[in-house]
Amino acid sequence: MAHESEARASESDREIVITRVFDAPRHLAWRAFTDPRHIVMWWGPKGFTTTILEMDVRPNGVWRHVMHGPDGTDYPNNSVFKEVVRPERIVYSIGGGRAGDAPVSGEATWTFDEVAPGKTRVTIRMVFPKPEDFARVVRDHGAVEGGRQTLERLDGHMAKMAAGD
Fold it and tell me: What are the domain boundaries of the chain?
């Protein structure tokens, strides 16, 4: 279903940008991200599952979830939605990490751009307060590859959504 994929650490030493074009309409990608029943089906890298504790997709709304790694490690996350512009953009604080470790903080922006009828480019942009925070999420959490895998899982889930699952 996906058309192209790109992931990179940008020229900035605090930013990760991951982009993928999907053979899916923008409203479907938006729903997959904003509906807790859908996001739990694809959120996180391969082998991860997610438990949503709270997800209030509106400005100042709280998003609390726990990502469960395939090795049994839990990654509690506490975020706040800063901007929600349906169906174009969602901005939220990043707050989480491996249970027992110092939390990672930053900001994530997801954009949903219609690039052609039935084709949507999703871009994830994560910005961290300090270069050391960026280095830690790339090195210790595999954020770039994890982001790629997350978008792969989104692709598979949107195919099921489009088929009527």
Answer: 2-162
Question: Whole-prediction pTM value?
Answer: 0.89
How confident is the model at residue 30, as a pLDDT?
98
Which helix H or strand E contains 138, and what residues bound it?
helix 131-141
Query: Domain 2-162 maps to which CATH number in 2.60.40.10, 3.40.50.300, 3.40.50.10860, 3.30.530.20?
Result: 3.30.530.20
Cα→Cα distances 120→38, 81, 85, 149, 152, Å: 17, 22, 16, 17, 14
Query: Angle 140-145-150 (CA atoms, 0-180°, nearest 5)?
Result: 115
CA separation for the pair 77, 128 (Å, rounded): 15
52 vs 9, more confident: 52
Instruction: Tell me how far apart the alpha carbons of residues 51 and 76 are, in angstroms, rounded to a whole number.
Output: 9
Give how far Cα 162 sits from Cα of 77, 110, 148, Å: 29, 21, 21
